[in-house]
Design brief:
single chain, 195 residues, alpha+beta, seven-stranded antiparallel beta sheet, 7 strands, 39% helix
């Protein structure tokens, strides 16, 4: 009788410890998830959408002006400063980052990370680029290039000594990037899935 009583108490203690540990573990996970959600909310509060922010920026802006355009301050990631160049990042969350590079305290480039699947467009065609390739040295404007890829605007992905745009076909894997100089003419293009 005494051993049955002790066995019952032992089982009860094991049950209490198991339930107590499980609840504590669940509360920890909930607290971590809440912290991550709060951090994510902080990074995505901006004055413009991710892809639109870059189109509002210019190499002539100051960092303060860029901060005002985006709506929050850029961060300086570790190990990116040298004596002549610095990098700053605007983290929009979900692997969406705009990187600003300063060279001798002047903005030299602004780039964004993009996901081709988000930018796919069924109107984009890469079938009409052989004529563009043959005439690239003649000076092809953005509008001519736009017409050749289906008449849709590209998404601006980089500002530097040229403006770089991307067009993504409806399959999400075929794409073309075109770089346009300050004169507005196509300097070069590359991609996957065109002839």
């Amino acid at each position: 009788m005494k051993s049955k009583f002790l066995a019952g108490i032992a089982c009860l203690l094991v049950l209490v410890c198991t339930v107590g540990c499980t609840n504590k573990k669940e509360n920890t996970v909930t607290k971590d998830d809440t912290t991550k959600t709060e951090e994510k909310e902080k990074t995505v509060k901006s004055k413009c959408s991710y892809y639109k922010c870059l189109s509002k920026m210019s190499l002539d802006n100051t960092m303060e002006e860029l901060n005002n355009i985006v709506g929050f301050e850029a961060t300086n990631p570790e190990d990116t400063t040298s004596t002549t160049s610095e990098k700053y990042e605007y983290d929009f969350g979900d692997d969406k980052v705009i990187t600003v590079t300063l060279y001798n305290d002047k903005i030299s480039s602004i780039k964004l990370e993009y996901d081709r699947k988000e930018l796919k467009n069924n109107k984009v065609t890469l079938d009409n680029l052989s004529d563009i390739k043959a005439r690239i040295n003649d000076g092809i404007s953005y509008d001519e290039f736009k017409k050749a890829v289906g008449g849709v605007d590209g998404t601006l992905i980089e500002l530097s000594s040229w403006n770089k745009y991307v067009w993504v076909a409806g399959d999400g894997s075929s794409y073309i990037t075109g770089s346009f100089g300050k004169d507005g003419n196509l300097k070069f293009f590359s991609g996957l899935g065109f002839k």
